[in-house]
Amino acid sequence: MQERIKQIDFLGLVLWIFRTAIIVSMLWGTIATLMDNPYSARAWTDTIVAGIAQGSLYALIAIGYTLVYGVLFMINFAHGEFFMSGIMTATIFIAQPMSASGYLDRHPVIGITVIAVVTMLVSVGIANLTERIAYRPLRGAPRLVPLITAIGASFFWQYFFQGLYGSEVKAFPQIEVIVGKVNIAGIEILKSQVIVIIVTILMLAGLYFFVVKTKTGKSIRAAAENKDVARLMGIDVDRAITLTFTLGASMAGIAGVLYALVFRQIHFFMGFFPGIKAFTAAVLGGIGSIPGAALGGLFLGIFESVGPGLFLEGLGVPSPHQLKDVIAFTMLVLVLIFRPQGILGEALAEEKA
Amino acid sequence: MSKRLLAIFAMLLVASMVLAACGGGAAPAEEAPMEEAPAEEAPAEEAPAEEAPAMFECTDEIGCVTYYADEPIRIASALVVSGPNTDLGMDSQRGVELAMEFKGDVLGHAVELQAEDDGCSAEGGQAAGQKIVSDPTIIGIIGTSCSGAGVPMSKIMSDAGYVMVSPSNTSPALTDADSAWNPGYYRTAHNDKVQGKAMAEFAIDVLGVTSAAAIHDGDPYTEGLARVFADNFEALGGTIVEFTAVNKGDTDMRPVLTAVAAAGPPELIYYPVFTAEGGFLTKQAKEVAGLEETILSAADGMISPAAVEAVGEAGEGMYFSGPDLGFENELYTTFLEKHTEVYGIDPTSVFHSHAFDAANMILGCVEEVGVVDGEDLHVGRQAMRDCLDATSGFDGITGTLTCNEYGDCADPQITVSQLTAGEYEPIWP
Amino acid sequence: MKKSITTKEIIQKALVAGVIALSMSIIGFIALLGERELVKGWFSLGHVFLIAAPLAIAYVTVENMTHENNAKTLGVGFAIGAIASVPLILLAYIAVAVDIRQFLSNVSPALIELLTFGKDATTGSIYLLLLFGATGVFAALLNILPARVRHPLVIALAWMIGVATFSEILLGRLRSLLSRDLIKTIFAGKTLNPAFAVGVFLVALLITILWDAIGGSVKEKVAAFNPVQKKTMSAGKSLVVMVVILFLPLILGSYLSEVANNVGLYILMGLGLNIVVGFAGLLDLGYVAFFAIGAYVMGVLTSQGALGLDAGFNFWTALPISVIVATLFGIILGIPVLGMRGDYLAIVTLGFGEIIRVIAVSDLFKEIFGGAQGILQIPKPNFFGTELVQPGQLYYVILGGVLLALFIATRLRDSRLGRQWMALREDEDVAEAMGMNLVNTKLMAFATGAAFSGLSGAIFASKLTSIFPHSFNLIISINVLALIIVGGVGSIPGVFIGSLILVGLPELLREFAEYRMLIYGTLLIAMMLFKPEGFLPDQRRKRELKAEAELDGVEG
Fold it and tell me: Chain B within 8 Å of A325 (Cβ-Cβ)?
């Protein structure tokens, strides 16, 4: 017993050194950067706004991870592909022809709405097809099994869509009305970034309301709590799961449209890295929690954007932005050492994890 | 497996390693005679009747390849034909195929291509290299597309006595005797040192800028080029305000561009990256405060129809360094005509002509050193190397090629084009 | 449960088959395989994959329906096949009428030519309909035929297609063994000559028929052996296996030895990750980190280029250091994640893998690791004065590593530590309550796993003579995880099978090029759906899985 205590002390020490080292180097870097003051206030706000916009996209994608995880306790690795499939299809079949005919500039609202609807339909379709074929037969299988099918599905869809639309980078048309900047409280922000942030807030609020207040939303939560009890209460669990995938994929679809509006460039591989980042965000915020996913996404986006400049620039690190993933994952480790269940995660999630 | 079995196995293993070592001493040498083996065996066993009065005897130091009557001369290509850089490799492969078509039969033998994929990675280059050298009937290799794949392949083919001519390896290391150069390696592509220097000269002399930033994406090609540019730019009296990098797969370039703006802002940004990241950089640079007036420039990784689409309006007026493709020779005109006729499209990337020349160099040397013996053809492997080494004043599409002792054969004409209304217009020199 | 089939069901099933065939066509897969002729002038791999979906679906459908009379069964088969061709026929008509390549870039003239057999749309459609119908009839026929006819037929067909598919590999190998005239009778270019293909079919058919006839009695005889005979026989088997493994490079030739080496490196990693994931149940998605560390330590210590340490290290002296450094990192990276479980562990380890790669590529450490330019001029291993250049020589180095790892893994599995790992996997809380030292147990798993991976990485660096950061990406971690799961989690022989399937096979099927990952993905899904426990499941793990599944069934 005594030996055990000693060991925990030793480990505690190591972890303490670990944490302190990270925090000290972060602080040191920050102070050094601020002393040096390489950036104007304008540059800081621009970077932060870019981070918030990127974080919003992460948040929307992370919702899908968190919803599915909450109900099925599986990491849906293919979620990034739901995000990619919708906007790829809508760009090729709707956005590009619409733009070529000039319709998109004449009726931007209708145009974008049609694009969004098609995107969501395709994303939801792909999600439910994947669930039906690759996930549903595996309910109750050991946890590694659906993880592997999810990885398989991710590869499958990536290269399926590569085959379908080709491997080259595709342009999403520029829409005249959202070019340029607006002035909000003295800060100039790109119109596209404003759209991303506002739509994300609306979507997250709507989703939260739906899941917490409506009867169908409650069926999802009931299925997440305990499938058997839910079944006994007359809830169609399969339907609840389908609904979960539908909700998650719709959010991913919306994220796809926003991505296209901001970055105006799409590719069959575009879902992979954002998918992993969004998964990181979901874990960071506490997997299974909707506000957690939103917060985690935002947190990750801002740190990736601001972190390299703030922590590393002052330390004289060459090419600091190359290391943004190091910052993102170090933050993740740091948060998880302090709070193993994530920022807003419930202890329950840990039990089931 | 029981303990005893394991013990026996271990003993056997040690024994076999000793055997491999003893036999291995001879193995590299053995490999070369193996190529001749069919030359010796086949006439003796299969066709004693054919035993011609003056039987060919191979005196080549590293062996000969023999093609009997009706057998095609075999060459291999190792270009990237899968993954994100497919366009680059397919384009070169079409160049090789057209060279074969233009050339027709060589010394009475048809020419056959064994096409392999270099995967644009070291592992891919290794696998493709091993596959090619396991075929003793291959006389030369056109490849690789990517320098990273070229490094292991160069070693493998050199050890096995082959020759390779790369149409698009540009890394300085590959022709540096202190680094990754091996005998038998040649290239028709320019060395990065040339392109980076040319771009720096263009920036200072023509654009008249004095401050610049360079951005790479962690790819060996882009990093090397960005660095050579930065070094030369400073050597010519300019200032590099920021040398920085993004990651492959990044989409949000605003933070890094903001940092570049804060550091200068520079008058010019040079980012010799590929289409995806380059598209994001171009479009977002226009939206970052402080970079509105900055001149944007990139390299041949972004000279393609897809890149024009990706940069969109933001790319208007942007500069691109790359090999000079305004080949004003009749050969190129015929080449383009044939290309459209055979494949139904225009070339998709920039190195098709280099590949065309590379294939012609190899086939030309086969023609030169091949020994016709009745209906058979013998080609010495060392003779091939000697022939390629001696390449001088070779008239190709890409210019007049002359190889130096480390295999740099290109006639490096670097040009800078400007993107005007969706077309790359060469403007310098 | 067999039941009679309705028209609606037939149409449904047929359309599923048709849509699958259509999907494979419009993504360019069929056209690409269409270039790969299997038997000269007869058919291509594209045809095989084109009819695969209707064949499989017709077969399964007919198998599950009540069999009334032969005519009706064959009719159902024909109907399924014929209806399945409808989507493709529509595609052919549309593609002929309008240019849809601006949307679907792979609907190429080559594809349409393949679908319409080079005829005009109408004639081609009739051919296609008949081909698919015949496929359906064939599927139905297979059901009706008695097993003694069906079995040899299927086996022989499979052999013929298999040999034809791998004909290029075969050709490469045979070229240096057989005379050129013999090669010419077997192959036409890269493809098989019809006569030889028929020969393969007939030989396989004969052997199978023979084996079906006498195989049973041979098996019985073997089963009736006395213990001594049985022992001799198993010893004989082991001896044969050992001899084959020892002389494999001679059998395989240099290219296939190279493939074997790649498989070997993955086996090494797989044996290591199998300890972490399979034995101890710790889900690690960043396993490539240790592979990279092993490779970079080897590179830095031995490179003769500018980045090399130039401290007189050679492969053999640097090898243990690489392994030790990787092991240390296994422990260092293991400490922060001790308290994390399941998916939290997964994402954090994934992060570690990425961190290591990003650090390797970064400009920050360019002076040490070479940044994007990597480390060049790493010498190959030297064995008593001989540089091991050939894949066939390096094979023995890798074989040595694999045997060592195999020995350690086997011994560890059956040791006290091994049982502790299993206890940890089954229930962490219970294990701790029983007084087990969780910290040591977990760290030992991470350390051992890292050591194997470091060993693999060090050999990899020396084998390649150059290393670049992009060789160490997430896909490697995923690949290793997938191979141990495909082989059977926790099963040591499973690692070997998994590596052969997921590393060896894709290497041999280089024709598939960009569709390799698509097939890989499909394979992973299919594997998990039909054989979730893996090819060679571990017996103990199998029992656990069953219990777990039952428990899950109760809990939901």
Answer: yes
> Does residue A201 sit at the C interface (CB-CB below 8 Å)?
no
DSSP A309: I
Alpha helices in B104-146 (DSSP H): 122-133
How far away is chain C from the Cα of B393, in angstroms, using its nearest Cα? Answer: 33
Q: Which of A156-165, A318-327, A342-351, C452-461: highest mean pLDDT? A: C452-461
C214 touches chain B (CB under 8 A): no
Which residues in C lie closer than 8 A to residue A137 (C-beta atoms)? 529
**Tally of domains within chain A:** 1
Instruction: Give the gap in angstroms from C-alpha A104 to the nearest C-alpha of chain C.
Output: 18
Query: Which phi-psi region, left, alpha or beta, contains residue B274 (left: φ > 0; alpha: ψ -120 to 50)?
Result: beta
CA distances from A76 to A64, A82, A201 (A): 8, 10, 24
From edge to edge, which strands make up the β-sheet containing C43-44?
C43-44, C37-39, C191-192, C187-188
Which domain, by its residues, includes A120? 38-352
Question: Which residue in B81, B136, B178 is closest to C176 by CB distance?
Answer: B136
For residue A312, what is the nearest residue in chain C, using CA coordinates? Answer: C364
Q: How far is A74 from chain C (nearest CA, A)?
A: 8
- Residues from chain C contacting residue B176 (CB–CB below 8 Å): none
**What distance in Å separates the CA atoms of residue B381 and residue B377, rounded to the nearest whole number?**
13
- Distance, in angstroms, between B207 CA and closest chain C CA? 29
Q: Which fold, B193-317?
A: Rossmann fold (3.40.50)
Of C116-125, C497-506, C534-543, where does the model show the most confidence? C497-506
pLDDT digits (tens, 9 = 90+) for B284-340: 998 888 888 899 999 988 888 888 988 988 889 999 998 887 777 888 889 999 888
How many C-beta atoms surround the C-beta of residue B413 within 10 A? 16
Q: How far is C272 from chain B (nearest CA, A)?
A: 18
Residue ranges, CATH 3.40.50.2300, chain B? 64-189+328-411, 193-317
Q: Which of residues 265-304 of A touch C (CB under 8 A)?
A: 276, 279-280, 283, 287
In angstroms, rounded to a whole number, what is the distance separating the alpha carbons of residues C249 and C261? 10
CATH fold of C252-555? ABC transporter involved in vitamin B12 uptake, BtuC (1.10.3470)
Residues whose CB is less than 8 angstroms from the CB of residue A169 and which lie 6 or more positions away in sequence, other chains included = A265, A266, A267, B275, B276, B279, B306, B307, B309, B310
**SS3 helix, strand, coil % of chain C, rounded to 5?**
75, 5, 20
Provide the pLDDT for residue B134.
84
CB-CB under 8 Å, A318 with B252? no
Q: pTM for this one? A: 0.89
pLDDT tens-digit readout, B171-195: 888 988 888 899 999 999 888 888 9
Residue B427 has pLDDT above 50, yes or no: yes
- Chains B, C: CB contacts within 8 A come to 153
Does A264 sit within 8 Å of B252, measured CB to CB?
Answer: no
- Considering chain B, what percentage of its residues have pLDDT values greater than 70? 87
pLDDT in tens, A124-153: 999 999 999 999 898 878 878 888 899 999
Question: Does B246 contact chain A (CB < 8 Å)?
Answer: yes
Report the relative pairing of strands C37-39 and C43-44 from DSSP bridges. antiparallel
Give pLDDT, residue C494: 92
Task: Indicate the CATH number for domain B64-189+328-411.
Answer: 3.40.50.2300
Chain B CB contacts of C390 under 8 Å are 24, 27-28, 31
For A326, nearest residue in chain C (alpha carbons): C355
CA distances from A273 to A270, A277, A286, B3 (A): 7, 6, 20, 47
Task: Give the start-to-end residue ranges of the domains of chain C.
Answer: 1-144, 147-223, 252-555
pLDDT beyond 50 at A1:
no
Pairwise CA distance, residues B280 & A264, whole Å: 8
**Among residues C106, C373, C383, which one has the least CA distance to residue B86?**
C106
